[in-house]
Predict the structure.
Amino acid sequence: MFAIFKKELKSYFINAIGYVYVGIFLAISALLCCYTTLGARTYSTDMYFNMMIFSFIILIPLLTMKLFAEEKKLRTEQLLMTAPVSVWGMVMGKFLAAMTLFGGTVLVSCVNFIPLFLYGDAERGSTDYAMTHIGPVFGEILACLLGLFLIGCAFIAIGLFVSSLTENQLAAAVITVAIILFMLLLEILNSFIDVYILRAIISWVCMMSRFTAFMSGILDYSAILYYLSITGVFLLLTVRVYDKRRWG
């Protein structure tokens, strides 16, 4: 597994995908931070994190589209499947490589918050004096970063699964974009549904509704378990795809 992890992590920077991903991620995060906090003269980071999650519609497919699709295209998939490593080890090696690059980029993007801790006073999106807050809330930012990371990991697992189904990287990217977009828009679609039971079910599976607690600085353990479960389910599905190919 560790050999596959190193190979995949290195491959991001042998070709341009890794540099493109990191550059786009950091550019988007810097622009959003300037627009939603510094430009708005507020310490509230709610809009920043919401918009960053929606940027995953483009960013995550860049990270995952090649993971298995490239192996099929280059006809190296059989070598990978006959290597002395389990299917779980193969899948986890690729997943952890993508997760490491994603997590590292999220960590670097935290420099965007430095000005919030260094300069000036601001109101947290309210004209009410009672709501005035001097300085950013570190706990809220930390909780949102954790939620952002967990959502990213869930989307990486989805992209990994999609990549295992096709040898066309563009097709893998487009399908992943569609799935992530659908999962993020569920909350908006839910507002047009009048049936209470259906609304409750959609609200329960919605990614964005579960992120609300993190924006209040609350570590919602049910949301954490949900994001980890989504990640685990799609990793398991990917393993099943390759189990079938290895023994089918």
